[in-house]
Amino acid sequence: MTTTRALIALLAAALPLGGCVTTINTNGATGYSDARPAQVAQTAAPGKAKNVILFIGDGMGISTITAARIYEAQKRGETGEENTLSFEKFPNVALVKTYNTNAQVPDSAGTATAMHSGVKTRIGVLGIGPEAEKGVCKDALAHPLPLLGEEVKQRGLALGIVTTTRLTHATPASVVTRSADRDWEADSNIPADQQAQGCKDIALQFAEGQFDVALGGGTSVFYGKDKNRAGRRIDASADLPAQWAAQNGGTVVKTAAELAAAPMDRPVLGLFNPSHLTFMADRKPDSPEPTLTDMTAQAIARLKSDPDGYYLMVEGGRIDHAHHAGQAGYALEEAVEFARAVQYAVENTDPKDTLIMVTADHSHVFTIAGYPQRGNDILGLVVPPAGRGEDGGDGTSPVLAADGKPYTTLGYANGPGGLTVKRAAADDDHDHGRPMPETGIKARQQALVPLGSETHGGEDVALFATGPGAERARGVMEQNVIYAIIRRALGWEK
Ligand SMILES: [Mg+2]
Ligand SMILES: [Zn+2]
């Protein structure tokens, strides 16, 4: 038994991953060989999936998962630590190494490319190999990578893309587009000399591409100035959604109500905000925008009618944005909604034919610290258990730091909460015009290094998997192996 397993592991390690990966980008840019997927864990008879759903919590590192688990339950009046988020019940878990070929701490473009093209690449680029320099159009044209979204359509499956960010933002864009620079979302974002070499902006690639469901924000980059929206430069009357709809017999919708009413048997493109969708923490009860769960439900309802199966990517994209702003409460609200969307998928798909995976593209420099007592408000000050702390602690008073001030359980290693003046108490002085430390949903947590935008973190993220092929999610893996897990689950490679 042991010998057989060892032999299988050896064979797996020796075999190249798959056709796409081995035939493209063999020139070996610096660091690239290290980035090749080692192996996908082998099991005796992994199941074959008809459908695959990949949930990506942008920036949802493990500390975010832990804090969100506590926060979700505390909203129900529970202590929280014992709670389990929807995807934490999945039977298979792995750790994922997220670095880009030229970056120890990665960005969302390089990491999303790893998952949707099977190749690690440089920070800031989409769907192109590590040989290509960021921002250089001719390099991008010379080094295209396969796109999972294109293969899904070529093989006759249905394709869905759902996000809370602009549809043209890095993570959703990675499914079906390539770009020398993730910021080339509209033609107005591409330097004229680069555009002259033939590179298309991401919105245009969406409009010319094929998908069955694409839901998110980013209206502005799809229309010309004449349409009273900021985005496009060359054609002031551009209406890319109309162009896409005409070519695909599709429906374009702008609100949750329009989405619900759109024909079920035609492709749908939903653009619900000029930019990213509204943060859950700012959302009004009568908002015309769908939630991530609403969009997930619509996507599954539409895609499941394809007899050949489907691939659906669902991104909780604003966990990341809230962390960049140093606002943990906002990030946790987004993470809780993300977990709700996963739960919807679990309850509305067949576990025998649908592989569901949940991961993050990268982490953030976000910490859960101090020795707060069990059930302590996760967005509050650190209150230790009774009898603990310098003065014995009464179980209700915040513990004080060396400067005599209280501090919050949640914090950041860097970001907008970085203190540039002497730290003040919650009830007297202010830093940046805001009291410190702040607590509650709108708080901007304190940070060590002052930066305008809090940064990503470089430690591994988690991968949770359930359904046919989920057995391959185990151990510590390179991020581009997720691409192979998807393709193997669908039976596209051995
Ligand atoms: Mg993203
Ligand atoms: Zn980010």
Task: Outline the structure in words.
Helix 4 packs across helix 15 (328-347) and helix 13 packs parallel to helix 15 (328-347). The longest helix is centred in the last third of the chain and has 20 residues, at 328-347. Strands 5-6-4-3-7-1-8-16-2-17 form a 10-stranded mixed sheet, with helices on both faces. The chain has helices at 2-14, 19-23, 32-35, 62-74, 108-117, 137-142, 148-154, 170-176, 192-195, 202-208, 240-248, 256-261, 292-303, 318-324, 328-347, 481-489; strands at 51-57, 92-97, 158-166, 213-217, 251-253, 268-271, 310-316, 354-360, 363-364, 366-368, 410-415, 430-431, 434-435, 447-450, 456-457, 461-466, 475-478. 28% of the residues lie in helices and 16% in strands. By secondary structure, the protein is α/β, with parallel strands linked by helices. The chain contains 16 helices and 17 strands. The protein has a domain at 54-353: Alkaline Phosphatase, subunit A (3-Layer(aba) Sandwich), CATH 3.40.720. Magnesium ion binds next to helix 8.
Describe the structure concisely for a colleague:
The protein has helices at residues 2-14, 19-23, 32-35, 62-74, 108-117, 137-142, 148-154, 170-176, 192-195, 202-208, 240-248, 256-261, 292-303, 318-324, 328-347, 481-489; strands spanning 51-57, 92-97, 158-166, 213-217, 251-253, 268-271, 310-316, 354-360, 363-364, 366-368, 410-415, 430-431, 434-435, 447-450, 456-457, 461-466, 475-478.
